[in-house]
Design brief:
Blueprint (H helix, E strand, L loop, with lengths): L1 H8 L5 E4 L2 E5 L13 E5 L2 E5 L4 E6 L2 E2 L6 E3 L4 E4 L6
Antiparallel strand pairs: 1-2, 3-4, 4-5, 5-6, 7-8
Keywords: Signal
Protein name: Secreted protein
């Protein structure tokens, strides 16, 4: 899969959900390429992370999207980090 090849080249940061807020975020990337996660939120049956580019669903309707998808930076579409979380 594409994300495996990107994983080898990408600088990874993790964001951990605790009480609906991000308590850890440590991107090991250049500041001008850094993506800030505004927060991890809960709404009804959906758990999602959000930044200024997109909303990334972590769980919806009982289905967990573990390790799926990435957050991208603008038009460059540079893969920056995945989300890990506890439910």
């Amino acid at each position: 899969m594409r994300w495996k090849s990107r994983l080898a080249a990408a600088a990874i940061a993790t964001a951990v959900m605790a009480g609906g807020t991000v308590v850890t975020a440590a991107p090991a990337v250049a500041a001008d390429h850094r993506i800030a996660v505004d927060g991890i939120h809960k709404k009804a049956d959906c758990v999602y992370a959000q930044n200024s580019w997109r909303t990334h669903i972590l769980r919806k309707g009982g289905k967990i999207y573990a390790g799926e998808g990435c957050l991208y930076a603008g038009a460059a579409r540079k893969w920056m980090f995945s989300i890990s979380y506890t439910l």
